[in-house]
Design brief:
The structure holds two protein chains of two kinds. Chain A contains 24 helices and 20 strands. By secondary structure, chain A is α/β, with parallel strands linked by helices. In chain A, the strands form six sheets. A five-stranded mixed beta sheet of chain A has the order 9-10-8-7-11, with helices on both faces. Chain B has two domains: 60 residues; 79 residues, Glutaredoxin. In chain B, strand 3 and strand 4 form a beta hairpin. In chain B, helix 1 packs antiparallel against helix 2 and helix 2 runs antiparallel to helix 3. The longest helix of chain B is centred in the first third of the chain and has 13 residues. Chain B is elongated, with a radius of gyration of 18 Å. Chain B has seven helices and four strands; from the N terminus they run H-H-H-H-E-H-H-E-E-E-H. Classes of the chains: A alpha/beta, B alpha+beta. At the A-B interface, helix 1, strand 10, strand 12, strand 16 and helix 17 of A face helix 2, helix 4, helix 5 and helix 6 of B.
Chain lengths: 596, 158
Amino acid sequence: MSYKMHILVCGGTGCRASASQNIIERLQDSLKEQNLHNEVQVIATGCFGFCEKGPIVKIMPDNTFYVQVKPEDAPEIVHEHIIKGRKVERLLYRDPERKIAVSDSKHMGFYKKQLRIALRNCGFIDPENIEEYIGRDGYAALAKCLSELKPEEVIQEIKLSGLRGRGGGGFPTGLKWEFARKYQSDQKYVVCNADEGDPGAFMDRSIMEGDPHSVIEAMAICGYSIGANKGLVYIRAEYPLAIERLRIAIRQAEEYGLLGTNIMGTGFDFTIEIRYGAGAFVCGEETALIHSMEGQRGEPTTKPPFPAESGYNRKPTNVNNVETLANIPVILTKGAGWFNKIGSEKSKGTKVFALAGKINNVGLIEVPMGTTLREVIYEVGGGIKNDKKFKAVQTGGPSGGCLTEKHLDTPIDFDNLIAAGSMMGSGGMIVMDEDDCMVAVAKFYLEFIVEESCGKCSPCRIGNKRLLEILTRITEGKGSMSDLETLENLSKVIKDTALCGLGQTSPNPVLSTLENFYDEYVAHIRDHKCPSGQCKALLSYKIDPKLCVGCTLCARNCPVDAIIGERKEPHFIDTAKCIKCGTCIDKCKFKAISVV
Amino acid sequence: MSEIKLAENKVKELEKVCAEHGHQPGELINVLHKAQSIFGYLPREVQEIVACKLGIPVSKVYGVVTFYSFFTMTPKGEHPISVCMGTACYVRGAEKVLDEFKRALGLQVGETSADGKFSLSSLRCVGACGLAPVVLIGEKVYGRVVPGDVEKILKELN
């Protein structure tokens, strides 16, 4: 059946949380009522990326992009847009600067600078239908490899493309494949690392939810190249939707003869199994991941031997991250020469970032390597929320660092971020404004590390705990100036001596905030003040009687009834009862409440 | 700790799961996932059965159960409340929301109320950062939560 129009509805996790499933049902009902269900098809796609404005609905072929759609808007979309051909003006995106409605995503600030390679199919296809993937050149790369290229030639092409691992390390992917190919064995494995544990990063999940076949195809290509016929996807159990889509995709690929035995009649066999993670950040480290797949505690071991020599079940194993794999098919169809023209000198291609925090356009973005932080934050991200002042951007997750104003014009790539004291990591990018306390942020990351440290080596297990204790002391106003020296020395020792990548990078948030926000540490210690008003122990809330009009809004919203006062009279805060939650400040319309 | 009497049909189901995985020690994590979905949590008694069926020491099973945050040895409440403490939610005030849940419920993270109604936990990133701060209660996602919403949400569930 051929449809005249398609309504694409985002079925990513964020939009589903805002009832996009209901929107689909309501659209289908309305189409049926109008007897249009044979002409217009509603498709649940993967993530469009523009999560801030979700749920997103896109009408094809005219490319109309509706934002923040509610289920009750469905009949209007069908009546107005589908039947009468008139756009539903109120659901269009409004350009905040030009104050006009924009209907085509190409003209939105959020999308203009983006180049979607890894996310090429997310938001375009129905991830539960293999034909849609095939319709967009899917499995053409696998066919080309199996019929035209020798394994060495495939590896050569990947090497030429300059693709580097997107999971954090940035190791050249082609080289990794070459190592795995070199080792002789009766059994080899291809592992897809889909254990995205970095809080605030969700690109891998979006790829698996929106375009699972690209990962499957790439794994098969990798298997062909290194001489493996078994693939394993190690995925977080907390990602039920991604697991479901992956299962469907594997089953469909098997039915189409794209997985299994004698693929496309070439004699190449390849199967894929799913293994579940169970919530351990350290399992992003490949040796830890392999132990976890073997049913053990996910503790890392020293390298060498590298997994390429002795990995899963002590057999040669190649581990690649989801985003890395999603790049593979398109590199092979379009050629290494196409790919290596994109990006910066030593970092080729694009990178997906999960842009979040105090920014106007929260979402999943993909930009060429070499794009500056300023372009990402102000153009794609639309600037800082509520016109506040930019303070820092944290890249690389718990292992990364906080970069400041002075780094804004740094072109983003693997090497520049490391030189600036942070790292690419898996691509989390959290923007912070003047209200964020950097000492508290460092403490937040250390809490995460202490919780996630596997405990195998003492620098990480004990050292990070000590760092956290010192930071806690400082945020409570009990620190001393000598603590700062201890923080720095201890951080360096942990970096030098920890066993795995987690420990070696864990002090980064401390070191980078010490370097860039030293004054804030000093303010906490010497003046017993938190300049951003975040550290609870150091602040109290006060109502200015001159500004308070006695509207009672704060008192009604205070969760502990700590605000007293008569209607139309200035109110007061009972500091003994106050839990410093900040609700009153958020609610007050007269800016009468302040933190002192 | 007192012995827990496990329901016989659930034990049978667990034994079947172990058999389906070929009683292979390498399948431990997969078996534990299924065990947790059968019993809702992994008390000592469940771990003993798994250890016995897979032919490995209980200490090893316990080691794995306590290593991974997804596995729990305490039963979850009827309404399991998880506050996302991923970085995106944190910078948008998730800690204050969590504090308010702790206060309103009188529970610490990882605890379940005496009547079995609520349990409180924190989790790392559900990938709905556009809705930060996010609270997950059962399957339902609450977005852009502020401390003032907490009482209302709890009332809704009561």
